[in-house]
């Protein structure tokens, strides 16, 4: 490990060549290979792009402190400086996969063991699925003999060929006990205190979160959890990060933080929520009410304005799409797509830094919101509501906001969900909204 200034380290041996080999394979079952290869691993399955899985660590970059994303960019540039092939199709190029914690003051204590303030891994093996095939990419850094990398490819190919899915996707493990933080009564007090602060004028919005710790009847099968989320949440970004043998962070989030491809930036404002109806009529009525709700439009537009403002130093023209209702299995949200063309090429981490946390998960103004969150929430957000994603040597990449998520180890999991509080929020409605947002993870577990 070498040190890159305070708190930064990289096992990427910046000046050593990065050796990459790739092979196209017949389609393989992701569930089967996830079963066959253990941690460290990462899964990234976007709604509209190929699925990606990484195993092992050819290099690990981690950093903390206020400059964590700048430090990471420096170590990543060094790691990628001597890449031996970069003209391959996008999904097959070497990628750093990982994420950062909600706040830079985070310590990787339980349940977040292994989840540094910022941590990205260049996998030893990457598998990327295309429409009818898959690509295996093997990465190695430094004194590794290129012939050893070829051997690793052959070994991995043999193992992948042998990997067969183990029967049907199992049923969720089942929940035997649950512990909420805060209690309903305490939540009411917290929301009222936040509203008082908003009335005082130094805060416009704050997103307060809850945690739900559950014990499971059986140990969690990660390949099966991901398979169940694929079926139930195909329109969401499914992700999983497991730094070592310990905990895993996973989710199915509807919220893109930012993606950068060349000069094109895509992001979204997602805030303002209601439930789903039991009938089509009720569902449409709820959607219409949401689209018309002054409180939700206010909550939403604070996010859209902040996103546009944060992008403006990098892009002279920022396009705002139409505000519509995004329907998810347990909730509906107001959503506005936002796109921009960058004036100059920028690294996706620069935009992550500019945007995180948006007021969809933090609040406004950001410092007053963080102060309120820190004083109010009696648990560590860890990587919940934080940027999770990947980037490559060109600085292209994609990041989601890690909501609708849980951190789990063996037969325990902690789920997180939050709601935006504005001046006219009602504590009980916000409570109900949070329970709906636990839906995706609870469905995966019970
Ligand atoms: C904070 C969460 O969700 C965010 C908050 C929303 C809201 O307050 O309406 C809606 C979508 C997300 O941006 C969460 O799911 O935990």
How much of the residues is beta strand, in percent? 25-35%
What would you call the structural class? alpha+beta
Uncertain residue segments: 1-13
How would a crystallographer describe the biggest sheet? 12 strands, antiparallel
CATH class of the largest domain: Alpha Beta
Family: Belongs to the isochorismate synthase family.
Pfam family, one: Chorismate_bind
Domain Chorismate-utilising enzyme C-terminal: 184-437
Protein name: isochorismate synthase
How does this model look, in words?
The chain has 2 domains: 2-162, no CATH class; 180-220 and 255-445, 4-Layer Sandwich (Anthranilate synthase). It has 11 helices and 24 strands. With 446 residues, it is α+β, with helices and mostly antiparallel strands. The chain has helices at residues 30-36, 68-80, 146-162, 184-200, 222-232, 280-292, 294-311, 348-355, 366-376, 427-437, 439-445, and strands spanning 2-3, 9-10, 18-26, 41-45, 52-55, 59-63, 95-100, 118-122, 125-129, 133-141, 175-181, 205-216, 237-242, 248-253, 256-261, 264-275, 317-320, 324-327, 331-341, 363-364, 387-392, 397-401, 405-409, 412-421. Strands 1, 2, 6, 7, 8, 15, 16, 17, 18, 19, 21 and 22 form a 12-stranded antiparallel beta sheet that branches. Helix 1 (30-36) runs antiparallel to helix 5 and helix 2 (68-80) packs antiparallel against helix 8 (348-355). Strand 1 (2-3) and strand 2 (9-10) form a beta hairpin. The structure holds ligand ISJ. The site of the ligand C=C(O[C@@H]1C=C(C(=O)O)C=C[C@H]1O)C(=O)O has 17 residues, from strand 16 and strand 24.
